[in-house]
Every structure is written in C-alpha cells, then in structure tokens.
Amino acid sequence: MQRRQSFKTQKQPLQVHCKNQTDLSAWRKGGRIDPEKNVQSNQSPNNQKNDSKQGSLEQALSYFEKVQDRVSLKKNSVLQKHLTTVESIALQSGLPPEAFDVLLNVALSGKLADTVNTRLLKSLLPASVIPETSVVSSVSWLCVSKCSGNIQLLFLRWLIAVFDFIDHKEQLHALYGFFFSFLQDEKMCPYVCHLLYLLTRKETGEYIQLYETEYHFISYSGMQSYLQALLSLYKLYCPELVTITLPGKMKTYFKNSEGPWKAGINTVRRRNQENSPVFQPLFLGTAQPQSRKRKWNIQLIIPVSSTNTNNLEEDEKKYRVDLYSMSESFRVEQLQTFSQLLQNIHHLEFPSQMGSVLTNPLLLHYMNCIKDESIYLRLYYWMGQTLQEECTWCSVDNNQGEEEFKDFLETVYKTECFLQEGFSSCEEFLYKSLPLWDGFCCRSQILRLVSWIPLSSFSEIKSHLYDPLAQFFFTSSLYFKCSVLECLKELLQNWLNWHVIHLDSESDSQVHSSNTTHSELLNVVAELIHFVGWISTLALRLENNPTFLLYFILDFYETACDMYLRYNLPLLIMPPAGVFYPALLSMDSVSLNQLCYIMYRYRTNLVAAKENELSKKETVQFRFSNQTYQEYNQYITAMVGCLWTSSVFQKDIHPQGLRMDDELLKKTAVQEFKNSFNIVYHPAMMGYAVLFLQQAWPDDTTFNFSLIKGKKWNWYLEYLYAHGLKGLKVFIESSINRVSQASHRKAGNVQV
Amino acid sequence: MESVEGVARTLLSFGRLSRGLPFGRAHGLSSRDPLLPLAPRSQENADPQRTAFLLRKQWTLYSVTPLYRFSNAHLRDYARLLSAFIAAEKQKGLAVEVGVELDIKVAVSSLPYLKGSDQDQAAILVQLSSRSPASPKNSEEKLIWSGWFCCVSGDDISKNVPEDFTCLPLFLVNGAECYTSIVGSWFQKTFDCSFRRLAISPLILSWMAAMWTGCKVDKTASAIELVFSVPCLPQPLDISYAIHPEDAKALWDTVQKTPGEIIQEEVDVFMDCLYSHFHRHFRIHLSATKLVKVSTAIASAHCDGIIKFLQSQYLTGVLMLLTELAISQIE
C-alpha cells in the first residue's frame, strides 16, 4: 500500500501535464477542436440544438471538476441535472476526448457515492478517441484505492471495452507491471488477465518469467480459463519459459466486458468508419448495412497496408515462425522511412491487399523497381472493381458518396502521377463510364484521369474516348472546353514522355517491341493531334474566337510543334487553317506572339528533320510527308506577307487563306489595306505602335504610324522585343531574311 | 398504363447498357456446345446425390476477381485461419487464439465434380456451422451459413492469368449477411480479391426463360412463372405471369429454328409472343415493364442476383451461364 501511495504522488505532475495537453480550458471557451466539430456537424443537422447541448456539457464538466465533498445524489438537484446531461450526451454522440480526464478523476477519486460513480463510468463513451493520459491518471487513482472494489472492477471492464479507442498505448504498456500486480486480487484477476492479454507484446518477455514464479498461486486457485488464456499467449511468445501444459481446447477465455457499453461502442465504430474512410483499417465485420446499396463489401475503403499472412507454402513448423515472428521478411507495417526501404528492399513483402499501396508512397517506390506482373494484376482487379462499384453515375442507385468517389479518383490520379504511368483499369473504367457521364460530376478528376490514358495501339480510342468527349466539348461552356484542351495537352505530353523513356530502354526491354510497333504509336499520336485540331476549329467558330480559348489551343500546339526535337518522335502535324488564321488575325498580342513561337519551333524541327534525312540516309524510316513541308510553307508565306511584307492579299496561296482580289479589297474602302496587318497596323500590335510613337515623338499627337520605318522600324522591333514578345523575336530572326541589314530596308524574303 | 411510352424507353436503355454481355458466344452455338444445359458432360459429372445440398436453396450471387496465392493444398489451414478471424470479428475486444475451436466451426472443402472443363479450378465450399456451447462435442452441428466459389467453363479468364492466380469468378452464398461479410472480408484480405454483387439484367432473364423452357424435365413440371415489375409507380406493383410448361415448350419449339442453338432474335420472338398473348387478355403491355424474376422447373432467377437450382442435371449448365456473367463483370 505504501508503495502505491507514493506512486500516486509521483504521478501528480503527469496529471497536470495531461491537462495542459488535452487543453480542456480551450475547449470550454468554445474553441472546440476541429475533428470534434466535424463529428458534431456530421452528426446532426440542427446545430443549434447541438450548441446548447455543448453548453450544458461544459457546465456539467466544470461542475464535476470542482466538486469537493461527498454530495448526496438524492438531495442535490444540481448533481442530478449534470449527471443526466453527461449520460444523455454520451449516449447520443459520445463524449469529447477532453471530458474523460475530468470524469475519470471524479469517478475514481471516491468523492461521490458509488451509484454516481457507476453511472459516470457507464456513460464514458468516446465520440472519437480517449486520450491515453487520462487513462494513465485513472490507473494511478486505481492504485491508491480510494474507490470501492466494485468501481475498480467496473473501471477495468470499461478499459477492456474501450481499449481500441485509446489514442496511444505506449505509456499504458509502461504500466504493465502495475496491472500485473493486480493479478493477486481474486476479484480483479479475470479482468486483469484480459487486459494483460491485450497489452502483452513479444517484448514483454520479462514478465513471463515473473508469471512462472506466481505459478504456485495459480495452481492453488485452480486453472481458470482466463489464466490459461494469458498463459497460452505467454507460451506462444516464449515457449521455453512456460513449462506447464495447457489443455487443448477451450470455449471462451474471457468474460464479455463490453456489456454496458456495447451499443454505444458500435455506434462510435460506425461513426469513425464513416468519417475517415481512407485511413481507417478495414472494418467490415459489425457495421450495419446503412442502406440497400451500402452492403458489406461496397464501402469505399482503401485497404491498410498489412503483412500477407497467407504464407502457407512452407511446412507447418516454419509457417508458425513466419506467422508470428516474421524473422525472414520485413513487414510492411514496420516500413516508415525511405532509408528503411533501402535497407530492407531485398526482403520486403508486398501487403496482403495491393490496393493499400495507393496511400503508401514508400510502397509505390518499391513497386516502381519491381517488375512483377502479379503486382499490377492484383491492383488492376481491385481498382477496376472499386471504380465500377463506386462510380456514382454508372450504378443506378448509388447517388450518395460523390465526395468519397471524388477523393478516390483524386488518390488514383496522384498515384498515376507518382508512378508516371496510367493504370489500365482506369483506362477501361473511363471507356465504360464516359458514355454515361453527365460531364459535370467529378469533372476535374475525370479529365485528369483522361490525361493518364496509356499510349497503346488501341484502335478504338476514337469511339471510346474522342466521340463522347467531343459531345461534351461542343455542348459545354467555354471553361469546360478549355479544361478538355488542357487535359488533352497533358495526355499528349504524358504519351511523349512515355515514348522517350521507352525509346531509351528499348534495347534492354521487351515491353516495347512486344505488342505495338512504332508506326502504330505514331498513328495514335497523330489521331490525337488531328482530333484536337478538329475540335479547336469548331470551338473557335462556336465561341467566336475568344483569346482565352485560343490560349489553350496554342498551348497544345506548343507541345505538338516540338515532338521531333524534344521527344524524338518523327511526327509533325501543322494546326488546321481554322486555328492558324484566327491566331494570326487575333486581336490579342499574346496569341500572335504564341503563334510566332510555334511557327519558329515548327521551322526548327522541320529543318532538323530535313538535315537528318539528307545526312543519314540509312535510317530514313519515317519521313515527314511533303504535305507537311508544303503546309508549313503556305503558312509561313501568309505570316510573312501579313506581318512583314504587307503582301498577304496577293501572296497567300492557302485555299482557306487571305488571298483577295484587288477589286474586292477596293470595295472595302480601306485606304491602306496592303499593310493593315503588318507589325505596326495589326490590331494586336497597334497598342504597342501607339505607345512607341508617344515615346519616340512625344510632341506629335497625330499618331502618324507611317513614321515607323527605316531606322525607326528597327527601334520599333527592339521596343517590341523589350516588351516580352519573345516569340515574335525568334520568329522574325529565324524566318525573315533581312536582305541587307545595313540598308535597313523593310523588305524581307522567306526562307524555307 | 398511360406512361407506357416512357417506360418503354427505360427498357430500351437496358438493352443499350448491357453491351458486352456474353452473347457473342451464344450466337450460332452448335448442339455440342455446353452452354446449353443439355450438355452430356455435366450430367455425368454432377452426381445428383453429391449436388443435392445445392438444390432448392436461395443463393445470392457475387463475382470475385482471381484469388492470389490460393492453394487447394491448404484448405484445412484456411479453415483454421478463417475460424480465428470469425471469432475475432464476432467478439471484438475478446481474446482469441489461433487454432482453438470456438462455437462456430468452419469447414473448407473442395467440390472437384463441379467443373465444366479441365481448365476450370475445382469449386471450393465454405461452411459455417454452430454448436451450442451447452451440448457436448459430438452433438449435432447446425449449418448456419454456406458459400461456394466455382468456375464452370470459364476458360476465357482461366487461360489468361498467371500461375499465382486462381480463377473462381462466381461466388454463391446462402446465409446471414453478417457471415458473408466476415468470410468475404477474410478472402479479400488473404487472397487480395474483390467481391461484387452480381445482378442479372432483364435481357439475361429473358434468355433464361427461353432456354429453360426448352429443357426436358422428367417429372410433372411446375408452371413457368415470369414476374414483371411496373416502374414509376408510387407503390410497387408486380405482375405475375404463369404459363403451363407444355404450352410454353410448344411455343418455344415453334420459335426455335435449329434445335440446340439459340439466337437473340428467337428469344425476342418468344417473349413478344408471350407479351401479345398477355395483352390480348389483360390489355397490359408487358414489354413496358421490367422482367424481375423467372421461375421454371430448372431453376429460378431474380434480377437482384438470387438463384435457386431445382434440377441437378442442369446444375452445371446454369452455372456456366452464371460464370460467364461473373467474368463479364470482373473484366
């Protein structure tokens, strides 16, 4: 007893400490902790009611914290009121973590009558978790024996019932010895055995020796089932230390302690499960089906990484060793850091459910270096089934859980980004679900997943992807159109990156040569670019050429124009006239500048291709068609004629181009029609020209644009370049041959 | 009956949704093809006595993706582990020791005779039985839940998976959902597979109606019953349509052109004939309703994915169709 007493005093500072930690005062002031708030708001729609409830709980807690002397329940209506408050709130929504410290303290300190203590203990149901510190401090109360034996027993039963809800168990493990000493108490022994059973780990070996010394005591009291249970566990961990033989079969080891708390605990479990579907362990057993649809296996839960226990290949003996000690392999649960991964990579096991890698970046790293078909196949089946089952628009009566599904798609997308690789189960899901999609639900997630469709020679991508996508595209808002273009640009980039990587490893891998040939892949890429060209042309007409849309279209072509040099793909496709001319005649300098840059890159790529064709004749497998060069030349003629030589109406030879008869042009009554699209008069450039005039001739207010010529023309160019028109700069420097720099003539020649 | 037009559209959309269903194989079947329940092979394999326990029970259907690292050699170990898992799930927070017998006994066994082809894995039967704690050990055990995995002529999928995987795509369950949940979770955890409920579309149900009508049954057969559900009503309204089996057989014989071969058009004609007959008498267009249940002497099937086998000689034939449905759902 003396020892126990001193333990209590020793533990005092800990109690104070734990109060600070749980910060009850902050909670009382109304600054409730967020997770609690979430639970509350999820819990009931009428928050007002909740708030008043919270208020009364706060009052009750502060009452129980201050209560000093033994108060009779019958005579004290205040106590009655607060006790009822605690009970009703506990039953409805559970108690917040902060409440446990106060209530356990009062219940175990023996200040109040046992009837009150019993009612308090019975209402200790957690809303989310129980702080370990409050459990530790109540164990110290247990040691000083201020409360009656019945309350001690009830406390132990409570501890067993809520064991899974204690947030940490490290300090509790440190108290193993104290619980162990309670074994001597005849009444407490069954529950203490159960508690020790829950607390026992392999490392607890020292106590097993202790247990042996108590063996005589056990043999006196007869072999109770609960003692057997604990002993069998000890024997399992340290067979050499436990010498007694245990009977082979027993029905139930421990009395059911959950009794008074069972219903409440089930509610809490269900609630916890609902609130965090991703990080909760797979918990399918006792949960009630919530609706017709929400059957047992239809909860969207990404499994938690756990060791594969299905390791029965070895003989029985070795299997036992594997199952319990895992001496051979490194368990996934232990894997916490990257350095652990590096150290154990040779004997790391994949988790029992591959789906769990989605939330485990370390395992994704590992997956990246292991080439094993079964890994991908397991993931493929799991993901395919989950996507179809959870898809809110595919299954008719699954209209709840859109947020859940969104999160899941987001997780899948992040994994794809991490692995830099699309999942085929995702691809198939998109093909199946896009025709049924409303174009709205989970939009950004779906489009992001589209960007990870793997590059393959799949011939039906048009009917499965482009056709449904085009339907949405044409019938949706400008913003949606831009998002689709953005996602198709990402798709193209992912394909090109994949191609570069596989080109590098082509010599040592069989993957590339196995199912798809190079020319088939080229066709698939070409099909995508033609598709984007087609929808862009139509979208520009539908939306009346907005700059915003044009930006996304030209952004796509910034990738498409550089495929040969940047991605080593012998393919170049010019934008259609429906994109080129609106960009060339755009009212916005940004678009014009972008177009200039794109045409410059096309030129660089085409020139490089031509040079390679001429120099290395042996490898000219993939020749650019003459049509591409022809198209480029037509565009460049139009562009130079437009921006530089003011001859576009005569020289443009593109069938959809700007060529016009003089007669017709005269009818427009525009006087200087010839130069109306050069870099001074072009509607996108005129703003710059005006500012330039103001700076060059501050006194002149007539805006005489014809002044910009000769030397001033060059100044003007420098002025434009200085204002960020880098695309224009590289275009003019590469594509316009300024015949004689010294003479400053503004005539130029086209070189192709 | 005013909303007939709108309803017809719903039904049409079923036809559209069920693309990719396994009728490609059914077109132009030869009489040897085992898709028809008359296949002699199934008769010789399925001994009526050995399969009797599967008959006249309601089985809920699930599709299962291939089991990873499942081995027929370890069925006893699986039973032990599963029984420990069940005990742990049933009494969360209470202690459990692996290998100790509890009041729920688990048996995992193989049903090697439930097969369609040599490629198929042997079916696996899981049975849970309870013992009352009071009675002695040798007292009778009561079967409380059973489930079986099977694959009948699932060559399409069996051939295409690596060695580590076992294809048993069809899972049938009889018993309380709470046990299905526990057993299913254990299989999901242990063999990294996924379960999904397997619904039967009205299109498939009409196929079943036609196919099973054509089958010969020795004893005096019970009536063929089709149950239709009328959609878009405030209260559910089901229409039951019972036909004398000989009448139905006579109709089917006039519709079917080549014996031993069924095509979609014949099924459509058969159903249309039944519909027009019904319309003549009751002025109700059944084509505007949804077929939800088919009961014949061979088997009965509900669109929620519930089946009852009634004739052991046609067991493997029906299982083969269900295997195809399950495969189409997991691929």
Automatic annotation (TrEMBL), chain A:
A GO CC term assigned to this protein in UniProt: nucleus
Keywords, alphabetical: Centromere, Chromosome, Nucleus
Subcellular location as annotated: Chromosome, Centromere; Nucleus
Matching InterPro entries: CENP-I
GO BP terms, alphabetized: CENP-A containing chromatin assembly; mitotic sister chromatid segregation
Polar residues: compositionally biased ranges: 7-24, 38-55
UniProt main location, coarse: nucleus
Region (Disordered): 1-55
Similarity comment: Belongs to the CENP-I/CTF3 family.
Protein name (record): Centromere protein I
Organism: Accipiter nisus (Eurasian sparrowhawk)
From TrEMBL, chain B:
A Pfam family matched in the record: CENP-L
Compartments, as annotated in UniProt: Chromosome, Centromere; Nucleus
Principal location: nucleus
Keyword Cell inner membrane: no
GO cellular component: chromosome, centromeric region; nucleus
InterPro entries noted in UniProt: CENP-L
Keywords: Centromere, Chromosome, Nucleus
Presence of the UniProt keyword Nucleus in the record: yes
Family: Belongs to the CENP-L/IML3 family.
Record PANTHER family: CENTROMERE PROTEIN L (PTHR31740:SF2)
The name this protein goes by in its record: Centromere protein L
